Amino acid sequence: MVEIKTDAQMDAMREAGRVVARALAAARDAAGVGVSLLDLDTAAHEVLRAAGASSPFLGYHPDFAPVPFPAVACVSVNDAIVHGVPDGYRLRDGDLVSVDFGAVLDGWAGDSAISFTVGRARGEDVRLISTAYEALEAGIAAATVGNRIGDIAHAIGKVCRGAGYGIPEDFGGHGIGREMHEDPGVPNEGRPGRGMVLRHGMVLAIEPMLIADGTDGYYPAPDGWTLRTVTGVRAAHTEHTVAITDSGPRILTLV
């Protein structure tokens, strides 16, 4: 069931989104050659604590995972697409990093993700990341009252496929509100004019994931969480929590 939020509830989600945005900025600021992934998680966690918010990631245990998620941030490096578990790996010059983060404040959730490079960026990584943000912007632009879920999916897929990138099968965005994952699902590829009609008060996490060589496959790492590209190429992940309003899409996960 899709929960329609009131304007006041969307305002409350905006405050949770601010916490998410600040935590992601802190993680990015902390990143550098020689910095561990655990350090990035710690930087984000400090923002969470200071805001009096809680983490929807820490302890999250879906059916597919062998253990609860052990951190507040997913940190995925290079060929890791999503759900990377922060560990003692120390960032190297040229690494591509994606950080996915959520927060719950006063009972409402926010969810967002960023991708960036550390040190000297490779040209192909800059293009991959730039396209991921372009796909996110296209998806958000399609998130208007009267459009359908398929219009968002088509907008994202058109950008990704048009640039020659792959899209991980069966992964995409989702509704969000009192819970991190709610209905409806928001695919990263689809046909326009199909799916649920978008209404004022719907809130969606829109999150393109791109694979550099145009393939769509992935496999789970031994930790049971991290998803890696089958061919070992790099991936990028971007995301915003977006409210559907009569005045247009409202991004809730900005500072």
From TrEMBL:
Binds 2 divalent metal cations per subunit. Has a high-affinity and a low affinity metal-binding site. The true nature of the physiological cofactor is under debate. The enzyme is active with cobalt, zinc, manganese or divalent iron ions. Most likely, methionine aminopeptidases function as mononuclear Fe(2+)-metalloproteases under physiological conditions, and the catalytically relevant metal-binding site has been assigned to the histidine-containing high-affinity site. A divalent metal cation 2 binds at residues 111, 174, 207, 239. GO terms for molecular function: initiator methionyl aminopeptidase activity. Keywords: Aminopeptidase, Hydrolase, Metal-binding, Protease. It catalyses: Release of N-terminal amino acids, preferentially methionine, from peptides and arylamides. Transmembrane segments: none annotated. NCBIfam families: met_pdase_I. This is Methionine aminopeptidase. It comes from Streptomyces noboritoensis. The gene is map.
